[in-house]
């Protein structure tokens, strides 16, 4: 195969998120919010659930304001994936196409409207003295920090495990992710400005949101993270892409922890608990966890705190925007493009492309201009003979870590953290 490579600069054809008129917002009034935050009876919830179920998909899509091309995995509580062809056009993923992953339903959780910050409280308790309630509006008075970062579900790419053994859960392609700019107050600044004392025995921070479990016996959604990392990286975010955080994406206050998988970025943040132990909540101990060691394909061993770990830090990964798999494309020159990212703890070295099943790899530069936690664009001009080709793509970091040739070596029963080499079949005409 004759394949002449010329590596060009990263595409500059990237746009910022379009400005959206917040006037279209008819978010919850203060009164209705009070009602919701009060005693929320099961009756109200189930009424709302049946309301949601009764809607035709098209109407529901409009209700939550998402692009009608979104891939709907589940309307209730709302699991929507972004087609890759929509993701590629933007540096910052617009709210209309950002993936959605709700684990439980809540009235405020279903639209792009803004919920009022003025009536929002976030409590900090446990091994912190004194226990404190921060009002949403106070957050605005602190110095703000901005972080551009990849928000990615730990199930993103799960469907690829099915090539060896299908795993349970939403069969995500690679569109369970986006790149966003968040603005808010670093947690450590709040703690020091308010002169709060953290007991040195505190090892974890557990974050809770206002959404409610689907039944009154189901566990609420919450996650614990190592306290040092949370204090080092997390912000109490009040803006996404330059506007208040849309309700469906966790506004008015969301815990944002760059480098961590999406699930740890708790939406509708209401409480941070400073504790010695990780939460034993079902969603933290049985879900969003993977095994420390290899597990036998198809098995489902019991998870213990010792043999498993939460899906915290994102693995090295990349995606190809163009060409799409099984596409017929016009050659001989192809402008391959996509993005690569990791947890931001070490620098990525390059994006590597192989057109001979991994015998040799060519390195492509990454654009790091958006900071360590964002996705880094890459772009390569390759020349192909007409015919069938398979293109392999992986990211490599400066310590030599690479995406595995076969992502299934990390097979786990819930199919988390897929980061296998992307393999694209194309026919060049
Ligand atoms: N309170 C709360 N926070 C949550 C969730 C949730 O169900 N409830 N889902 C988590 C998961 S699994 C993911 S992947 C991200 C999805 O964020 P998005 O819906 O804004 O894209 O939110 C996380 N934070
Ligand atoms: Mo997720």
What does this structure look like?
By secondary structure, this protein is an alpha+beta fold. It folds into two domains: 2-310, Oxidoreductase, molybdopterin-binding domain (Sulfite Oxidase, Chain A, domain 2, Alpha-Beta Complex); 317-428, Immunoglobulin-like (Sandwich). 13% of the residues lie in helices and 31% in strands. The protein has eight helices and 26 strands. It has helices at 30-37, 42-54, 57-64, 84-87, 136-139, 187-193, 227-233, 282-285, and strands spanning 5-6, 71-74, 79-81, 100-101, 121-126, 128-129, 132-135, 145-152, 177-186, 197-198, 204-209, 222-226, 235-240, 243-244, 254-256, 269-275, 289-291, 308-310, 317-322, 327-329, 333-341, 348-354, 362-364, 376-383, 387-397, 422-428. A five-stranded mixed sheet has the order 7-5-16-11-12. Strands 8, 9, 13, 14 and 15 form a five-stranded antiparallel sheet that branches. A five-stranded mixed sheet has the order 20-26-25-22-23, with no helix packed on it. The longest helix is centred in the first third of the chain and has 13 residues, at 42-54. The radius of gyration is 22 Å and the shape is globular. It binds ligand MTE and molybdenum atom (MO). Molybdenum atom is lined by residues 101, 153-155, 262-263.
Describe this protein with a few key phrases.
13% helix, disordered N terminus, 2 domains, Immunoglobulin-like, five-stranded mixed beta sheet, 429 residues, five-stranded antiparallel beta sheet, globular, Sulfite Oxidase, Chain A, domain 2, single chain, binds molybdenum atom, alpha+beta, binds the ligand Nc1nc2c(c(=O)[nH]1)N[C@H]1C(S)=C(S)[C@@H](COP(=O)(O)O)O[C@H]1N2
